Structure to design on (207 residues):
């Protein structure tokens, strides 16, 4: 097991914690991480891009003028895609981008993401992240003491003071254990785990 220092919000080491190899020491495979991150981003894509086809456009179906004898090109109704205001021929039509990967692969990818943070020395464990008041300035000062600029902070339970103090800070995201995912772990430079959240991560990834 890897042994990591547990720090307080001033950056001082106060104790140590053992991280299980089954979660934090997994060989990293880029193709597995790529597959899961691609799935997450695809599932977040909007599916509302659509156009009006010929049958959706409002208008008469009467032929604009007779077929022959006018010297002009033959013409159908006013909803023809060739006319301004007519239907669109090959436009987007509510495309669904969603797809899934097996649950075992998703769990494995999350273990790999956590392991990569430990390997890159970008994993920080705090005993607590307690703020006396809801104040962005206090939160930013704590990050400066920890020498952190971009971080994903994982908590074990709801902390309204911490959530409201951090929500306006760029490059910072707060998640609870149940929301931990591969994309966010890889996106932010540093992963900050509260010590109390580690058993929850173990329970989620070992089941």
């Amino acid at each position: 097991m890897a042994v990591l220092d547990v720090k307080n919000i001033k950056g001082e080491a106060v104790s140590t914690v053992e991280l299980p190899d089954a979660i934090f020491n997994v060989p990293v495979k880029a193709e597995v991480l790529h597959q899961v991150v691609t799935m997450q981003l695809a599932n977040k894509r909007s599916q509302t891009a659509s156009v009006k086809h010929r049958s959706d456009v409002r208008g008469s179906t009467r032929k604009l003028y007779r077929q022959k004898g006018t010297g002009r090109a033959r013409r159908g109704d006013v909803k023809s895609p060739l006319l301004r205001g007519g239907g669109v021929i090959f436009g987007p039509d509510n495309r669904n981008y969603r797809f899934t990967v097996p649950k075992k692969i998703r769990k494995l990818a999350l273990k790999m993401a956590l392991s990569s943070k430990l390997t890159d020395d970008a994993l920080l464990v705090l005993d607590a992240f307690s703020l006396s008041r809801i104040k962005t300035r206090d939160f930013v000062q704590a990050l400066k003491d920890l020498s952190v600029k971009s971080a994903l902070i994982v908590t074990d339970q709801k902390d309204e003071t911490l959530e409201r103090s951090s929500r306006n800070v760029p490059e910072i995201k707060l998640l609870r254990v149940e929301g931990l995912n591969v994309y966010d772990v890889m996106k932010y430079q540093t992963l900050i785990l509260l010590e109390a959240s580690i058993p929850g991560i173990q329970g989620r990834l070992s089941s």
Remarks:
- Residues 48-96 form one domain.
